[in-house]
Amino acid sequence: QIFSQHNAEPLSLEQAIRRMAQTEPNLDHDVSWFLLPSYWAKMVVALISFLCFANSYDGDFVFDDSEAIINNKDLRAETPLGDLWYHDFWGSKLSSNTSHKSYRPLTVLTFRINYLLAGGFYPVGFHVINIILHCTISVLMIDVFSILLGGLQFSNKGRRLNLAPKSSLLAALLFAVHPVHTECVAGIVGRADLLCALFFLLSFLGYCKAFRENKEGHTFSILWVLVSVILGAIAMLCKEQGITILGLNAVFDALVINKINLLELIQKLLHKDKSLENAGQLRKGLLFRITLLMSGGASILYIRWRIMGTGPPAFTEVDNPASFADSLFVRAINYNYYYSLNAWLLLCPWWLCFDWSMGCIPLIKSVSDWRIIALAALWFCLIGLICQALCSEDSHKRRILTLGLGFLIIPFLPASNLFFRVGFVIAERVIYLPSIGYCILFTYGFSLLSKQAKKKKILAVAVLGILLINVMRCALRSSQWRSEEQLFRSALSVCPLNAKVHYNVGKNLADKGNQSAAIKYYREAVRLNPKYVHAMNNLGNILKERNELHEAEELLSLAVQIQPDFAAAWMNLGIVQNSLRRFEEAEQSYWTAIKHRKKYPDCYYNLGRLYADLNRHIDALNAWRNATVLKPEHSLAWNNMIILLDNTGNLAQAEAVGREALELIPNDHSLMFSLANVLGKSQKYKESEALFLKAIKANPNAASYHGNLAVLYHRWGNLDLAKKHYEVSLKLDPMAPGTKENYNLLRRKLEQLQKKG
What DSSP string runs through 528-578? Predict the structure, then answer.
């Protein structure tokens, strides 16, 4: 209902609330909660939402951050900005068969701005922006909830009134402190959900502004409807869920602006009631506005479809096992079980996990499975709420319940597996927007309990207790997201059957050099999922380094048998076969890896090492040259070329390669050392000395650097300097090969000179 009183004095907030209470029940009347001025309410929500996640500000890049940020070339200045519009969230071309088709160019653009402003990959700036975004969204929620819970009303000056200040504050606080939001705020890739939510809410508020009566007396503004569609498009360019706001705007228009009784409308449609022709909702332009929303949504989806291409993203069975089940019954049962688990995370967000795939939730394959109870409970509650939303005689109750269910269900639809397969079982980040509906239903339930309760203060204290527990849970969960070690280990108790959890714990331990512990977790990952090729590959690598070559070969052979295009496993298998001196098999494995990954510099490097062992020097040089073409900063390949040319007496060519390498990697001390050796043999002593000293400055504890510089001085005739560096070299490494013999030769020469003197 839109009212305007041109001949009356402006209404105060209290007068407006009183007038509203005369026309329909007011939610705040029954809610025992704090009444704060709008400014203070927003300050409180902002402060509490900040406190929940403040301790994540100095966290590391964790989990998916590596792929989406550190390894994403779209963040770097050398990548043209235009490429962002043709790449997915992870920096891959949308046309690629391996692309997940997650099209979020505006989110990637904010990552790029973060990277450029910070001058590199420093996570603090990324985390701070996420925290600010969540605080901003939480503050906006007060305005959104005031409309959803109190209705849309304007004063005669066109100012929107908050007719449910207590209820909207409570709902906004519930949203701000919900622990399930931790992944979105503390995990940097969660910015996609935060930006999407921001423009989602702005689109809704913009749509509400369309119904502010203007000076010409028009009942709605086409401009603001179009602005709402544009903001919805921006939300979708941040994350796919954003498009659902257009559907929610249509639902809001029907229920709040036009006050349609859905049950009554359905009955009239079924009976082809002629009274529909003169219905008030048609006169208010509802169909015209819905047509604008639908046309805008269809255009946005068509453009996205053209950019993305027609092929759906390719996911594997471990990502979403239920979607690969042959039986429609098994798929339906498990999808509904996933929905019940999402609902439980909203109700009781205690068991949170960064990943719910790979056996974390075993499939339900029979109706005798006790977990069927969860499905029954979910649908019992949903059907009860839907019946109340449709059949209640209280229009206020119908409106709030329908809007609550709409905001709970509609934003979740893209993640529901109903329209297309998704690449996860449960993802806490996708509940960020649906939690709006949960907060509406919780607040309405609290108002009903308050109405019935005799001791309302006890009920208010209980809700305060829930908020306080959630704040502490947010702080605890944020601290777990600060580092990969804490994040991965926190999942072991929640999802002990998840092979990916054990894999990530093992990988984190291996990166820290704790190979023995890493082996334990990799073995458990393979036990839980015998087809987990990445765990096999990493375990095979560690066993290779520990010289347990036969078991490493078995694991890597099994990995490439399960996934024949697994290039990394083929390369590692080649390394093991090379160590076992099965050179022909190793060469074949390397070329198979290159076949499946054309641009594979590390594989060319290892192939070059194989050819060098076989004295196929030209093939070795060609392989290393390919590695440096694909990866110009490949220091090891450059070094091996210089050393091989040096050892075969091609000093001029070795010098040319060394100078080329140092132009590309000017601060690499190992290249300085190799080139200095070549220059010394070419009797370019001054230049060789300068490079040796520069290398020693960069790495002063390398015994070989001091030893070879001593050899240079020895040849050059600077015997005192030679003696000094021989002694430094032997101090750093008493067993350095050749250094002791050279030092003894020098000492004898010095003794002979002293005798002659």
Answer: H-TT-HHHHHHHHHHHHHTT-HHHHHHHHHHHHHHSTT-HHHHHHHHHHHH
